[in-house]
C-alpha cells in the first residue's frame, strides 16, 4: 500500500518539476525521503 502511495508522489513530483514549482518540489521530495527512510 505504501509503495503505491510513494509511486503516486513521484508522479506528482514529475508534474510539478515540469511546472517549475520549487516549493511543491521541495515539499514532495521531503515527504518521499521521509517515507522511504522509515
From TrEMBL:
Protein name: Uncharacterized protein
